[in-house]
Amino acid sequence: MPSSSPLARLWLCARTAITALCASLLPLDTLTEAERRRLRGWLRALEAFCRRVALTEALQQRCAAPSPARQPTKPTAAAKRRPAFRLWPRFKAAGARIRRLGGPLSIAEIVAERRRTALAARLAAARSRHKPAHLRLADRIEALQRFLDAPARAIAGFARKLRHAPALARVIVAARAPACPFLSEDDVDACITISQTAATNTS
What we know:
Layout: H1 6-24, H2 33-63, H3 77-80, H4 107-128, H5 133-149, H6 152-164, H7 167-174, H8 185-201
Helix pairs in contact: 1-2, 1-5, 1-8, 2-5, 2-6, 2-8
């Protein structure tokens, strides 16, 4: 990709923005709840910007010859602990359906009810072991930095994902994000335009 291309300029904007964000931060464990909420909004804006830029490049790769899938490797203990930036959203599961009214009556219903209760208890225990808020923010920042340092592998996987799920492009383009002081309105508008054009031309 030529260094003077619009896509290269957007990559540069993203890297400059995350660098400026990190330079402006106080220690994360000293932030108030209002400051953490504001930081989460800035991160959402940066993540949405990066997803659109990555989407544009992945759509270009999708139209080219498919690259071979990377052979899975057994992750090391250190690799398992490293946060990763997710390029496509997780789709929310459908809500629970009401299968019966009243308490369980049959043995099968009693067993199923006990399983649901045990699962709810395990989920509640897992939530209680969540990292503190400042560590979760640090993970998101680290994941975004690692992605911007070397995006090629993630984009190649994104291109393969888009071949099987092209509707993801519309979801990412249409996603809304709050404003971020480290991204100019012109850069955000240019990013939206270039990703919309890429999604339209390759759909």
